[in-house]
Amino acid sequence: MQQAHLHLIKYALKAGCTISVDGGGDQLDLVNGNQYQQIKDDVEAVDMATMLINKDGKQVGWASMYLEQGQDPEETVSDFSVTSFMNAWEKEYYEGGSDA
Fold first, then answer.
1. Measured between alpha carbons, how far is residue 12 from residues 3, 31, 40, 68 in Å?
2. pLDDT tens figures, 4-40
């Protein structure tokens, strides 16, 4: 099973979203990025990160990542907003397979 945070990045980018990554500092590490590798690298550079997912200038969801060695793939997304976008992602990840 693909790690949830990687699936979410791919899902959001495929939907035409941009992603901002907050690594816990005073400012966002990446603002409105649309490059998979950069987003992945920024999320995985810290133990805890939050992705803010935007489409057409509006936030459609957020997700918190907690990355710990040896955890199950679905546990990498530890919390997320309850929005139609995030509900659709959750359904896709858990019911539709984990390969975005």
1. 14, 15, 12, 23
2. 999 999 999 999 999 999 988 766 788 899 999 999 9
Of 47, 46, 44, 82, whose CA–CA distance to 63 is shortest?
82
DSSP state for residue 56 in the 8-state scheme: T
- The pTM of this model reads 0.91
How distant, in Å, are the alpha carbons of 66, 90, 98 from that of 34? Answer: 21, 20, 20
Tokens describing residue 6:
């990687």
Written as one letter, the residue type at 17 is C
3-state secondary structure of 70: coil
Burial (CB count within 10 angstroms: exposed 0-12, middle 13-18, buried 19+), residue 90: middle
Q: What is the pLDDT of residue 54?
A: 97
